[in-house]
Give the backbone structure.
Amino acid sequence: MTHELPSSEQRALTHELVLPADLAYWEEKARRADEQDPLGAWRDQFEPLPPDVVAYLDGNSLGRIPKGVTEAMEQFLRDQWGGRLIRGWGEGWMDLPAALGDRLAKAALGAGPGQVVVGESTTVLLYKLARAALEARPGRRTILVDTDNFPTDRYLAEGIAAERGCRLRWVTTDPEAGLTAEQVAANLDGDVALVLASHVSYRSAWLADMQAVTALAHDAGALVLWDLSHSVGSVPVQLDDLEVDLAAGCTYKYLNGGPGSPAFAYVRSELQEGLRQPIWGWLGSAEPFAMGPGYVPASGVKSMLSGTPHVVSMIALGVALGHLEQAGIEAVREKSVALTSFAVDLSDAWLAGEGVQLASPRDPDRRGGHVTLRRADFESVKDRLWSWGVIPDFRFPDGIRLGLAPLTTSFAELLQAMVIFYDEVRRR
Ligand SMILES: Cc1ncc(COP(=O)(O)O)c(C=O)c1O
């Protein structure tokens, strides 16, 4: 084995690697790409990888921890929780859902202020928004959803259909692509109240045509709810310009908010007064501390809230968001395209001949921030890669997802992972 692992501290392989014959060519490419990468320095703004990790390719599932988070959390716990106790609620904690929402709207969502709140899980927010949309289209009884949407989206649509006695219209999508505008057009009619779709498919990374799908839904009189979990912080979105109605997504993936960090919901300003979400909690009411006899919704997007904000998690998210704000979403997307293209090229060069299939779009304009590769034995390949410190993730039945987070992933790191991936695939 001549190829060196990135650091002597990192896990040493216990066997000689089978190296690709043209490795030097790709090493040079990776070296030049890192040298010219305007975001290269951001890697140092994150805590180093643990010593047993060679390459972390799961930033699309749980992003790495930014430097500054630990200190900010410690400071918050000591000075604010510890020092201010209940007085903290009146000194900014209560404003965090809307304040962080506005920052996120500007940094990643192409949305003006007053339309995004942060809190609860993506599942709960999608549920609230979908229910609110259904109530806003009385007389229509159909939700359009695709068969390869993320499980939580499909399950909550099923739950709403059962609860409200409405129908689901399933669009069967190609799992290696995703929902197309043509499919949406073919399935819309006057009974569809809501189109529920993912912007970037969790399995294939298919990037849906948000503009076309949104316009089609509107032409048919339906509302559209986008799950942005796999695009936020990776693919720029223009919610205001595209007149998107509703959106929600996670903050623990490319936004690096930490495990279980709260989700966000977007409600276009013109819709806010007419929408009524189903969980009428005191903190979504107009005057929570009046403790009045009946629920009166808050005005604006705050009516989407229900209960006490996740203040501690929001401290970490606030720090992490600062990184995206400074790096800029356009630069992030540019690097994301370069990284996913490099992964596709390496897969073509080294893995395709070993029976590995690309299960993501080849066209970068139709691809989000990850690349999925398939082979029947990939569940066990993933376990072996993890044991060597290469951390992608696996999606049933046979897909390894390479999640490439532009602020933290280098081209050399990706190359290193692919060298070990190649060795593992060749050995079988
Ligand atoms: C596309 C997508 N939607 C929704 C969710 C669910 O999010 P949560 O567990 O925060 O409710 C996930 C989680 O990974 C996801 O990837």
